[in-house]
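for the record, two folds in this file. i put them one after another cuz i was lazy. first one right below, seq on top, structure tokens after. the second one comes after a little note so u can tell where it starts
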Amino acid sequence: EDEKREQEKLAMLRYLEKLQKEDITQLEMKKENQHKIMADVAKANEEIQRQKEERLRQEKFQEMKVMEYLKEKEAREIAYQAELEKQKIEKEKEIARMRALQERAKDQQAEKDALRAKRIQEEVERDQRKK
């Protein structure tokens, strides 16, 4: 009877030991799965962060391109306005030059006309004296 109880006790101990080993194995597997999940989560977070950084880099690049375009556009507009102003000034100078030429021609014509009138007057006076 003692031997039977001893064997039952040993069998129970072995069974408990087996259960304990199974529990430990399950706990280790659970831990390993948790580590895998944590690693996957960390990897996913890193990828999300990398994508976020890439998106921010792209946005900054696009913003820089827009600013560059606007700066170039403004420079072109300033150059265009300067060219228009230069053309306006040149046109005004040309008009002033043409007016000056016209005035000079008018003055020369007036001088010629006055000289011709004086000569005619003198000729008329000579003709009258001769008579």
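(here's the note) second protein begins now
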Amino acid sequence: MQRRHLQIVCFLLTNCFIRQTITTKDDFTGHQLFRVLPQNREQLDVLQKLRYHPPEKLENLDFWSEPTETGGKVYLGVSPEQRKDLETLLSKHRIPFEIIANNIQRVLDEHAQRNLETRLNDEISVYDTYLDFDEAMSWLRRITFQCSSRCSLHNIGKSFEGRNLTLIKVQSTKEPSTGTDRKPSIWIDSGIHAREWIAPATALYFIDRLVLDYDVDSEVQDLVDGYDWYILPFVNPDGYQYSHVKNRLWRKTRSKIAPHAVCVGVDANRNFDFHWKSVGYQDDPCSDIYPGPIPFSEPETKAVADFILSRNGTWSLFVTLHSYGQLLMTPFGYTSEKPEGYDKMMKLAKVAKLSIENVYRTEYAIGSASDILYRSSGTSRDWAYGVAKIPYVYTIELRDQGEHGFLLPPNQILSSGIETWEGVKNLALTMDQLERPKSPWNF
């Protein structure tokens, strides 16, 4: 009885704290979510112009998804001040649309409440709770301790606001079959866009599996024995924490371009120095696709690039996790031309797609980013292939296809982790079969 009483008190106090916190958050009361359905090329061009060259009255619309194809669904967050102008524009060009959420703030509150309810248990779980940055770092330290000599934490740099960019290295304690210290490596990152919470949650699930399944799953053991795994759950920790405490829909970093700048932050996935600012960006610092004043202006992107290049020649696989859309994409995003290794990458992508779909029948599309998503430049994906020369490079856009968008309920964290891990694990195993004869790390 006393234990139950303490749980109730804890819940009431937590609920009180959350309510106090919510009052300080950015308020989206009256903002609406539009679903727009371009039917032809002309209508699609109108939406793409709205995205990349908007009129002043419609600047900084919140594109939850991109205008990429006729017949596709484009989700837009719209302020009360912009609603009339947007409806006028869409009606002028006879572009069908519907309002699927009359009050985005209500949707945000419901999402926050669902995540709060998962915290009633004695121990917060990565399986059903979106952790904030500090909670995730505490969990990462605990599982690293549990993993003992097979795991280690590495701070590869600091964010603009001074948070550590902490990755975990999961490795085997076995020695190679021939004398070498150049063990092949796999890189996985997430959280480059702050509001895509399911991406870090899925990366944490990957870590959980690599650590806990090593002694019970021969396939996991083979992959850990054969490769060093480097997983960076939060490329953009400042933005991620800001999305927890201030603006749930924040996307960018939190850097200040100038001391008295009106707008803050850079799209870190437009900030890598490979075909930077060639397509798919806006020069407006207030835009959520602002690429920054120069390549690698952000300490976060520079730290990632420096670490990867410091181990150049060891990387076999690069995976960056995003949401949403259920897409598995190869380079390139800046051009429709295919990279030299496209066919090999697509072979593995097909394996991952089938593996994911075999779990819960979640359907994924595969192809190059420019073909199945949109044109973009300065991305970590294109840089990893074009500069770091990693042979297998993928972006995975996780669940869903727009029903919840960035606000995927916490009760889908586990299923997203399970199916995506099956895809990545089998992709890596197939890659291993192709490349392993060349490796001395063949046990």
